[in-house]
């Protein structure tokens, strides 16, 4: 039998016995459960307890609800609220059970059963915890409920029971972080993996993963260092390639500038030579014209002289 259900059954049996003993001694009909269920708070509670112990949780819930609605001012009406929550919980209707325990805690903040209700609140979440590769919100909620229980009621027996379960929750959360860390490690996302491993070491010490985590942290740091070394080497090679490229481009530019300079000098010389030739040609033409003019002048003077002689 499941320990949690067993504990609740014992609790209800004790409560039932405490209620029925006075009735036995006062002459009430102990065996006529049907009549009691119809007429008295004790009868309804008795019937609900029987149904609960027999595993008929929905039927038990009906009797607890009748007790609460028909006798709201009776002391057993408060216990019926716990019975409703327990019936839902035992029937694995955890979300509805959570609401019922929360309602009880809100309505009866100083009741002696508050530690039990808070403990059960944590159990509602605990029973919905999934595998380590799934969301662990329920694990966190269970842990938070039990930490709240221990903080408020450190002397309660339920706080003692919660301590072990808190450790289980921490172990579950640590295993999930470790699982994600190993996933990142396989994907070679070393910084993300290290962050997960260091979180386990920081937040979940002494839950059974310490030596394993220490190994993975060192291994991941070594991978990061190796990756950084390769990165720096690649950056150095890239820088060297860029410098070589720039040098090559500078040499190419220098050659182009030298080529342009030579072409400019050649063009200048060609222009100068051309101008010199043109000047020499012009000079020759001018000399030729001068000679022609001198010749013409001489001829004119000669002709003039001949004309004088003839006259």
Structural summary, described in words:
The protein is mainly α. The chain folds into two domains: 3-183, Tetratricopeptide repeat domain (Serine Threonine Protein Phosphatase 5, Tetratricopeptide repeat), CATH 1.25.40; 233-311. Helices cover 84% and strands 0% of the residues. The chain contains eleven helices and no strands. 25% of the residues are buried. Residues 1-33 have low confidence and may be disordered.
- The CATH topology of the largest domain is given as Serine Threonine Protein Phosphatase 5, Tetratricopeptide repeat
The number of strands is 0
Strand content: under 5%
Query: Largest beta sheet, briefly?
Result: none
Helix content: over 70%
Please report the distance between the alpha carbons of the first and last residues.
172 Å
| The first-level CATH class name of the largest domain | Mainly Alpha
Per CATH, the superfamily of the largest domain is Tetratricopeptide repeat domain
- The average pLDDT score comes to 88
Structural class: mainly alpha
Shape: rod-shaped
The low-pLDDT segments are 1-33
- So how many helices? 11
What's the Cα radius of gyration? 53 Å
- What pattern of helices and strands is seen along the backbone? HHHHHHHHHHH
């Amino acid at each position: 039998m499941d320990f949690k259900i067993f504990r609740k059954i014992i609790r209800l049996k004790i409560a039932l016995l405490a209620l029925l003993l006075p009735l036995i001694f006062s002459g009430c009909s102990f065996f006529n459960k049907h009549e009691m269920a119809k007429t008295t708070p004790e009868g309804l509670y008795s019937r609900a307890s029987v149904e609960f112990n027999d595993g008929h949780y929905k039927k038990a819930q009906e009797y607890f609800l009748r007790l609460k609605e028909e006798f709201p001012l009776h002391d057993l009406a408060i216990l019926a609220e716990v019975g409703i929550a327990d019936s839902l919980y035992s029937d694995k209707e955890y979300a509805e059970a959570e609401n019922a325990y929360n309602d009880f805690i809100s309505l009866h903040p100083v009741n002696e059963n508050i530690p039990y209700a808070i403990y059960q609140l944590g159990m509602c979440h605990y029973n919905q915890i999934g595998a380590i590769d799934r969301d662990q919100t329920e694990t966190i909620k269970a842990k938070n409920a039990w930490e709240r229980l221990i903080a408020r009621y450190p002397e309660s027996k339920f706080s003692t029971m919660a301590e072990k379960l808190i450790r289980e929750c921490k172990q579950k959360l640590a295993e999930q972080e470790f699982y994600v860390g190993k996933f990142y490690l396989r994907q070679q996302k070393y910084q993300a993996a290290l962050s997960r491993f260091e979180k386990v070491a920081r937040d979940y010490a002494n839950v059974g993963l310490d030596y394993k985590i220490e190994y993975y942290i060192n291994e991941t740091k070594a991978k990061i260092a190796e990756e950084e070394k390769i990165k720096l080497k690649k950056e150095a090679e890239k820088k060297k390639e860029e410098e070589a490229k720039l040098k090559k481009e500078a040499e190419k530019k220098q050659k182009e500038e030298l080529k342009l300079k030579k072409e400019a000098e050649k063009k200048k010389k060609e222009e100068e030579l051309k101008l010199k030739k043109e000047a020499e040609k012009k000079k020759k033409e001018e000399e030729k014209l001068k000679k022609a003019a001198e010749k013409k002048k001489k001829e004119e003077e000669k002709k003039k002289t001949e004309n004088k002689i003839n006259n």
